[in-house]
Amino acid sequence: MRIAIVGPGAIGRLFAGVLVNGGHRPLFVCRREEQAQAFFRDGLGFVDLAGEEKRLRVEAVTGDVPADTDAVLFTVKSYDTASAAAKLPQGIPILSLQNGLGNGETLAKQLDPACLALGLTTHGATAEGDTNVHYKGAGLTVLGDWYPQNLGKNSPARIWAELLTSSGHPVTLTDDIRTEVWKKAMVNIGINPFTALYRKQNGELLDSPSLLRLMRLTVEEAERIAAGEGVVLTNSFARVLEVCRQTAANTSSMLQDVLAGRRTEIESLCGVIETFGRNQGTETPYNTAMLELVRAL
């Protein structure tokens, strides 16, 4: 199958490697012509968990997703969701594998919701340069349809699950992906701002009792706001600690963005919690502090 990957960052490159392993043809849709040319010239440099480096052949374009694409993996930063969605074709299975809250709602307004699946992954990867990726830590990948009643033969989540599983990447299907997205957001809220502010890899957060206390308080606050939105979550901080251990050597996407001088996704994490809290009449001092501190970097 010809599969377009919109957003050739760390996660996009990681899953491109998975798809190549399954015999598929990933096509990166790049914002910059020089990156597209680099993929054509150099291929995708993929360093696996064992430290073995492979050079994989991929395609790359700029502009809109080609009309002959069979499926789309959507991995852009949350602040680019609306503009990048305008480049997507209608009527093919699209999987959003993004950080943050609100991406599904944005995509469902611009695309056929029946073709939309959302996913989350705790696999850790670090982008290096324009064309390389280092797989740093194994985790879990969960997929579900935006319309959960779609979990039949034509379910986009099921189509993507078969694609990935047959390529050696097991996934779990859920009929409540919205709750799963909130669960992943709790993990991101508990890890990403702290790695960005203190320039630490995920596992290094576990070495500081003071940071762990702040992480716990921030996540517990976000859990309370989620409950006010009708999403009941438990044990979120335990999941944060588990992901820190599983991806100990990983550099979080937010820290990668800070080090590269790029805009971060803090608005779709702590910023959304602050907004929901304001609407609920509840202050969110820990998430607001993380929001402003990361903004100030």
From TrEMBL:
<dbReference type="Pfam" id="PF02558">
    <property type="entry name" value="ApbA"/>
</dbReference>
<dbReference type="GO" id="GO:0015940">
    <property type="term" value="P:pantothenate biosynthetic process"/>
</dbReference>
<feature type="domain" description="Ketopantoate reductase N-terminal">
    <location>
        <begin position="3"/>
        <end position="146"/>
    </location>
</feature>
<dbReference type="InterPro" id="IPR013328">
    <property type="entry name" value="6PGD_dom2"/>
</dbReference>
<protein>
    <recommendedName>
        <fullName>2-dehydropantoate 2-reductase</fullName>
        <ecNumber>1.1.1.169</ecNumber>
    </recommendedName>
</protein>
<dbReference type="GO" id="GO:0008677">
    <property type="term" value="F:2-dehydropantoate 2-reductase activity"/>
</dbReference>
<dbReference type="InterPro" id="IPR036291">
    <property type="entry name" value="NAD(P)-bd_dom_sf"/>
</dbReference>
<comment type="similarity">
    <text>Belongs to the ketopantoate reductase family.</text>
</comment>
<keyword id="KW-0566">Pantothenate biosynthesis</keyword>
<dbReference type="InterPro" id="IPR013332">
    <property type="entry name" value="KPR_N"/>
</dbReference>
<dbReference type="GO" id="GO:0050661">
    <property type="term" value="F:NADP binding"/>
</dbReference>
<comment type="pathway">
    <text>Cofactor biosynthesis; (R)-pantothenate biosynthesis; (R)-pantoate from 3-methyl-2-oxobutanoate: step 2/2.</text>
</comment>
<feature type="domain" description="Ketopantoate reductase C-terminal">
    <location>
        <begin position="176"/>
        <end position="296"/>
    </location>
</feature>
<dbReference type="InterPro" id="IPR003710">
    <property type="entry name" value="ApbA"/>
</dbReference>
<dbReference type="Pfam" id="PF08546">
    <property type="entry name" value="ApbA_C"/>
</dbReference>
<keyword id="KW-0560">Oxidoreductase</keyword>
<dbReference type="GO" id="GO:0005737">
    <property type="term" value="C:cytoplasm"/>
</dbReference>
<dbReference type="InterPro" id="IPR013752">
    <property type="entry name" value="KPA_reductase"/>
</dbReference>
<comment type="function">
    <text>Catalyzes the NADPH-dependent reduction of ketopantoate into pantoic acid.</text>
</comment>
<dbReference type="InterPro" id="IPR050838">
    <property type="entry name" value="Ketopantoate_reductase"/>
</dbReference>
<dbReference type="InterPro" id="IPR008927">
    <property type="entry name" value="6-PGluconate_DH-like_C_sf"/>
</dbReference>
<keyword id="KW-0521">NADP</keyword>
